[in-house]
Amino acid sequence: MPGKRVYLLLVASIATLFVIAACSEEVIPTQEPVEFHPTAAAEVDRPDSSGDEPVAEAPDASAGDADAGRNLFISCGACHNTDGSTAVGPGLGGVYARAGERTALDADAYIEQSIREPGAFVVDGFSPLMPSFSYLSESDVTNLIAYLKTLD
Ligand code: HEC
User: Fold this and answer.
1) Which residues contact 63 (CB under 8 A, 6 or more apart)?
2) What is the pLDDT of residues 18-71, one digit of tens each?
3) CA–CA distance from 27 to each of 22, 31, 33, 83, 88 (Å)?
4) Which atom of ligand 1 is the closest one to the Cα of 75?
């Protein structure tokens, strides 16, 4: 029966084709192997990459932050002008330059005392009307001093 033989041949060839296809699938790589070549990170020039110091510049606390001090001065502006003119209290223009001459204290210490204990030294011609700002933190006072330094 030639019909059946043709049929068997057909089935056989189809099966062979499948086998070939399966084999070729294994042989032909579907994807190029990815080669990974790690490269060393480029040297970054940092201001101080030698030590363990953080790279970001933190504001120098000892120098004070005049902008923060300006914000704090809101509590002072009701009584103090920032030029030389008198309000309730003396005008604070140039205060840093004269602060060291007021008492035996240096300028920073005198201003800190003026803020925390205003009654300890009362400027000639003024009444002891200034309230104590003893609740201010050390850095608040430092920032206020930094701001007062900018007034002339
Ligand atoms: C209610 C008013 C008032 C407020 C608010 C006030 N002051 Fe005064 N301040 C005075 C008066 C009055 C004097 C002068 C009398 C004295 O020495 O205590 C003075 C004196 C000073 C002096 C000494 C000035 C000098 O020429 O020697 C400094 C510094 C000063 N104040 C800083 C400040 C700062 C900083 C603040 C805010 C944190 C502030 N004051 C808030 C009234 C005030």
Assistant:
1) 142, 146
2) 655 555 556 666 677 677 777 777 776 666 555 566 666 655 556 899 999 999
3) 9, 12, 14, 88, 95
4) 37
Sole residue written with tokens 């140039």:
94
Q: How far apart are CA 143 and CA 149, in angstroms?
A: 10
Place of tokens 């002891």: 128
Summarised one tens digit per residue, pLDDT across range 84-142 is 999 999 999 999 999 999 999 999 999 999 999 999 999 999 999 999 999 999 999 99
Pocket probe for ligand 1: among 72, 73, 76, 142, the residue whose CB has the most ligand atoms within 8 Å is 76
CA of 59 to the centre of ligand 1 (A): 27
Spacing, Cα 108 to ligand 1 middle (Å): 14
